[in-house]
Structure formats: C-alpha cells, structure tokens
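I am still getting used to backbone structure tokens and would like to learn alongside you. To get us started, please write out a protein record for me. Start from the sequence, derive the backbone structure tokens from it, and show both lines together. Once you have written the record down, we can walk along the chain together:
***
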Amino acid sequence: MHPMVKPALQRAWRDRQAVQFGVTPAQAVVLGPVDPATGCLLGLLDGTRGMELLRKEAQAMRLPDGQVDKLVARLAKAGLIDDATAGGPAVEALRNRPGTLDRLRPDLASLSLVHPEPGAGAARLAARRAIRVQVRGAGRVGATVAALLSASGVGRVEVLDGGSVLPGDVAPGGFPPEAVGERRDAAARQLVRRVAPGPPPRASAAAPGGSGPGGDGGPGLSLIVVAPRDGLDAYVPDPALSAEWITSGTPHLYTGVIEGTGVVGPLVLPGGTACSGCLALGRAERDPGWPRMVAQWRSGRRGAVPACDLGLATAAAGLAAAHALAFLDGELPASTGSRWEASLPLLDWRPARITPHPDCGCGAGGHTEGVRASEAGSAHDTMAG
C-alpha cells in the first residue's frame, strides 16, 4: 500500500490540535488531536512511499513505533486515505496510459470522494472503459450527453439518430459548426472519438456478457439514454418504443427540452421502477383528457423550430450525464423512478416521483423502488485521539 491523503480535499488547521479535511459539509472531516509530529507525517502521505519507507521515516523523526500505522488506520476509517497502487488489471492498464489518466484525474479525484475506500475510485474509473452506453438522439441535448459520457471515460458510446446536422444543433459541448450538413450518426461518432480521453478498448478488453441487446457480439448495453430532438418524446415517452428495453431488462434514462422546460428522468430499471407505461397510465388517471391530447400531439405537425434554449439544453445534458455516470458507477441517482424538471426563466429543478402502476405490464407495480438512503449527520465528524 502507498497511502496518500485524498488530494481532492483541501486541508486547514482549525486550531493547534485539529486539522479539517474538506471545505463543504458533504466532505468535511476533522481529525484531532494532532500533535506537530503527526502533522509532519501527514505531509509524507502523498502516495510516493510504501508503508515500510514511511515507518523508517517515522523512526528517523523519533516517533513511537506504530505511529504511522495508527495514523493511516484513522485516516482510512474517516475515508481520507487513498492507495496510489490499489486496483486490479484494469486499473493497472489505466495507469499505463499516462495521457488518458491525466485527462481523467479530476474525475478520479471526484470518484475518490464518492467512494471512500482506498482504490475504489480508481477501480470505478477503470471499469468505465468496458461499459457500453447508447444515446438515442443527437440534438443539442443528446450530442452533448454523448460527448460528456465519452470524455468521462465510458469506453463505448453509441449514438443513434437520422438526418443531417442542422445549424441549430451546434452547441459548445456537442456538434461543432463544421459538422453542419454531415450525417448525424457519422458526426456523432466523430464527436465521441474526438473528446474521448484515449483510444477505444479492444474487443477482448470488453466487459463479459457476450452479445447484449445490441446483438453485435460486444458487451451488453449498460444503459440507454433517450434524448430525442423533439422534447415531446422525452416528456411524454411512447411506451411502445421502450417495450423491447423492458423485455430485455435494459436500464434507460430520459432527458430533453420541451417548450423551455428541461427534463431529466425517469431512470427506468425494468421490473423495479416505474416506466413510461406507468407514467402514461398514472397521468391518464389524474387527467382523463391527457391521452386524447397526446395522440394529437404525436400525430400532428411538430413545430419547425423547437424551443430549446442553449443554456437549458446544456444544463439538462450535464445533469443527465451526471445521473448516468452515477448509475454506471454503481449508485442509484435521484432520477431513479423520478423526473426532474426546470423551466425558464427561474430554472428551479424540482422532482416528481413516478409510481409504478399496477396495470402496467412492466412488472414494477407492487415492487419497492430502490433508493439510496442518505444518513443525516453533522457537517463533519470529529475523531478523538
């Protein structure tokens, strides 16, 4: 083990005997009491020394035997220690690509805070390389989501859409101006490759699972992000379009912008959380006229120019990509079984829980939706010596 204090956490002395790691309430931890010698030891925990070398340096500083081990154990218990050498073959392969790792160091620092066990952040970052995600839709929202996922280390990001890139599709995080007029699918592939932190993984390096819902012999789809250019299909998704995903058990997340309202969610876990069918049935019960209007909206002429504010589209794409990455890293984000909406001009994101409907064929009715419990606590945890 090569212990290092997590570099993402800023450090400051609260007084002569207590050190605070982290600034925000979500991360702040106070370590105390800390004597000056122990404070010097903290400076040596930078990942460049193994435990044996640290013990020798502690002896040279005339510290008691076991002082280093006790300190590392205390820091590890508080979630403040990472291991610069931890991880299996996937992590080692990532370390052997210094250019790729340099691009992803901010992501690694963030993951090390979310997953406090030593080496856990690096393991999750390396695991992203073997993940396959499909983005359906390549407008201002969908193209940006695809670019964000690829740039965050997801190894295979596929984008499905037809037609050609329009001038209104150009966005800072999505298609560049020179892509206008190109086929959307081809332009999306170029975008994903251009922003990726490294070359795509070889087929042999893909995650096990054989032929997934894509049927191409590669790894199975871990997630589908549904980001249609017409925000109506994100706000009122057609259950018929997701029937195959429900049958195959493929998780899918809806996002888009319609009439100045950004939408993220729900994240559907087939058989466990509410799906688009549950959403339609529940809305029809509350508003009997809703199905009639939806049929008119779907069959009528759509607006030639959608109301898709660039700032709102970018915000929706960023939030959707963050929720997707949280799910791919093993968490259940707030969009699981819920939809988040924000409307111009105030942009106050607000959640709406979507309950599984007992008459929906997805099978989620009667199931308890999985929600990550957040424990209430103080802004920091004081560790007595």
